[in-house]
Amino acid sequence: MSLDKLAPTTPLSDLKVLELGQLIAGPYCGQILADFGANVIKIEPPGKGDSMRQWGEVDADGEPVWWNVIGRNKQSVTLNLREPQGQAILRSLASQADILIENFRPGTMERWGLGYDVLSRNNPGLIMVRVTGFGQDGPYSDRTGFASVCEAMGGLRYISGYPDRPPVRVGISIGDTLAGIHGAIGALVALHQREKSGEGQVVDSAIFESVLGVMESLVPDYDRAGKIRERNGGFLPGIAPSNAYPARDNRDVIIGANQDSVFRRLCAAMGQPTLADHPDYATHRARGANQQAIDDAVAAWTRQHDAQEIVDRLAEAGVPAGLIFRAPDMLADPHFNARKSIVMVPDRKGKPLPMQNVFPRLTKTPGTIRHAGPQLGEHTNEVLKGWLDMNDAQLDTLRNSSII
Question: For the chain, which residues score pLDDT lower than 50?
């Protein structure tokens, strides 16, 4: 695995982005734009920086690892936005920016004199991406909205886990990530509209709505059929066979064969071709009504074979199947390696660090990982000199007054 250098240029390289967000949701939006070449200036509080610099596991040197990923491809500028002088500098930077990302509580930017009405006066084309828990308006808008709460209110938490136990959370902050993705999509849509109108706008990306948006037909199912989707562990009701099945070597194999033709191929691979014609299993609805029976039949077969043997046999038969991967499995897998799904990126000390590549893939202008998360304030002088024509004396004054 090596750093992907397929594209000399990237599709968003002409964009200037200011990222004021902290933690995950806003910074993930910035990560997406930076991965595709945008010049993302990460504005951080002097002295401590984004809390993400301290989150997650640490390496052998005591350095947090996660920052290398979520801060990648960005430039770090320190600026105290709680001080009038820092706010004035931000207004000057925003006058030259295409996009500004923030994920403070609603009203914070306005209290600092940095609301969209102020920033857009000198830059009518500015697009402001505002990522919050509950959005910019409504009765909950002023609440602190962490992903765990918003995932619960968006419907995800209730359906996650097993029916005889309390709801569980997904093992990552998926609500934050979804809000960041929706924020990036909104920014690109707003950019396209700006090409036609010349005007910017606000992108309001709420975590609870980003979760709600991927809840499939959960709401209309209730309205039209009176059906409340429940927790069901490793399967979806009425979708069979599609579950985790035990193998002889105590590993689980995920098999998805709920489509009629695929189920027929599974039955043949199991050595039970006539099972596909049984009236209890011949159609999608019949299999859904007899889900436990068909799962038992598949599990009885998988218990006779090792997990990798099952996956190989079903792959040859055209049946979706796979092992449950952990990080070491991904690093060792030939498909991950062939597609460079994980690449090696030098960390701040020059040590190679594996991390997920840029997705999705573009055939002509793919994104690239140019560097890992930067040191705090590493680019402050460069940006303030380049964007605002400041000199060394001005920078020293700002530094001595704790503005940068």
Answer: 1-8
